[in-house]
Amino acid sequence: MSLLAAVGDCANSSLPRHVAIIMDGNGRWAQNRGKMRVYGHKAGVKSVREAVTFAARAKIEALTLFAFSSENWRRPEGEVSALMELFMTVLGREVKKLHSNGIRLKVIGDTARFSERLQAKIAKAEALTANNQGLTLNIAANYGGQWDIAQAARKLARAVASGELAADQIDEAMLGREVCMADLPPVDLLIRTGGDHRISNFVLWQLAYAELYFTPVLWPDFNEAEFSEAVASFVARERRFGCTGEQIRELIAEQQTG
C-alpha cells in the first residue's frame, strides 16, 4: 500500500478496516478450572461469536482469527483430534447464521492436510457465503505467516521458470498480490489475548503497518467490551507509516480538503 493510500484510509475512517486476533489462552482458562484443555477451546467458541458480532456491528470490513497454526500439529494428538472435531462441529452449526447475516467466510492456510471430510465442509461453507457483502471472516487454519510468503514466492518462481515473468519484475506489490487475503485491506489492528507479547508467525506480510494490542485476558473471557477497548486504543494512536507526525497530519488535512 502506498503512503498516500494508507493516509487516505486514516482520513476516511478512524476505525480499523481489518482486525486480526490471536485467540490465546483457551488451554490455561480450562486448566485454571481443573478441566481438560479442549474444554477451553469449546468455551472459546462463544468469544468467537461475540467478536464476529462486534466486528459486523462496527462495520469492520474484515476479521481474521488465528484458529490453528501450522505449528499446532506438534500438540498432543488427542488435543489436535479434538480441535479438528470442534472445527467440523462449529462449521456445520454456525455457517447458516453467518450466511443469514451477510458474512462471507474464508478459510486461509494449507487445508490440504485436513481430512477430506473437513475439506469438503470448508468448501461448502465458503461456497454458501461467497457472494455475501458484509463482514469478511477469515479463519486461519493450518496457517503460518512464513508459509504464506513462501507459497506466494513459489507462484512467482513458477511464472519466472515458465517465461511468463522476469525475475527483476518482482517487487513488493507483486508479491503482495499472491499472499492470502490479497483482496482485502492490510491488517490495521492485531489483538493477542492471553498475556504473551509475540505474533507467533501470524500474517507476517499483512502486519507490516499494523498496530499491536496485547491483553492478559484469556480468550474465553474476551467479549465485546474487551474488543471495544482494543479498538478504542487503536483510535487513540497516531499511525505514521514511516513519516513524522507532522507530515501525516498535513497529508490527512490535504486528503480531507480534497
From TrEMBL:
Alphabetized InterPro entries for the sequence: UPP_synth-like (IPR001441), UPP_synth-like_CS (IPR018520), UPP_synth-like_sf (IPR036424)
Catalytic positions are 24, 72 (proton acceptor)
Stated EC number for the protein is 2.5.1.31
Q: What GO MF annotations does this protein's record show?
A: ditrans,polycis-undecaprenyl-diphosphate synthase [(2E,6E)-farnesyl-diphosphate specific] activity; magnesium ion binding
Which top EC class applies here? Answer: transferase
Which reaction does this enzyme catalyse, per its entry? 8 isopentenyl diphosphate + (2E,6E)-farnesyl diphosphate = di-trans,octa-cis-undecaprenyl diphosphate + 8 diphosphate
Tell me the Gene Ontology biological-process terms attached to this UniProt entry. Answer: cell wall organization; peptidoglycan biosynthetic process; polyprenol biosynthetic process; regulation of cell shape
Q: Which Gene3D superfamilies match?
A: Decaprenyl diphosphate synthase-like
Is Magnesium among this UniProt entry's keywords?
A: yes
Electron transport recorded as keyword = no
Q: CDD domains recorded for this chain?
A: Cis_IPPS
Q: Which domain of life is it from?
A: Bacteria
Which parts of the sequence bind substrate? 25-29, 37, 41, 69-71, 73, 75, 192, 198-200
Q: How is the cofactor bound?
A: Binds 2 magnesium ions per subunit.
- Keyword terms: Cell shape, Cell wall biogenesis/degradation, Magnesium, Metal-binding, Peptidoglycan synthesis, Transferase
Q: What does this protein do?
A: Catalyzes the sequential condensation of isopentenyl diphosphate (IPP) with (2E,6E)-farnesyl diphosphate (E,E-FPP) to yield (2Z,6Z,10Z,14Z,18Z,22Z,26Z,30Z,34E,38E)-undecaprenyl diphosphate (di-trans,octa-cis-UPP). UPP is the precursor of glycosyl carrier lipid in the biosynthesis of bacterial cell wall polysaccharide components such as peptidoglycan and lipopolysaccharide.
- Subunit description: Homodimer.
Q: Which protein family is named in the record?
A: Belongs to the UPP synthase family.
Name it.
Answer: Ditrans,polycis-undecaprenyl-diphosphate synthase ((2E,6E)-farnesyl-diphosphate specific)
Q: Which organism is it from?
A: Aeromonas hydrophila subsp. hydrophila (strain ATCC 7966 / DSM 30187 / BCRC 13018 / CCUG 14551 / JCM 1027 / KCTC 2358 / NCIMB 9240 / NCTC 8049)
The record lists the lineage as: Bacteria, Pseudomonadati, Pseudomonadota, Gammaproteobacteria, Aeromonadales
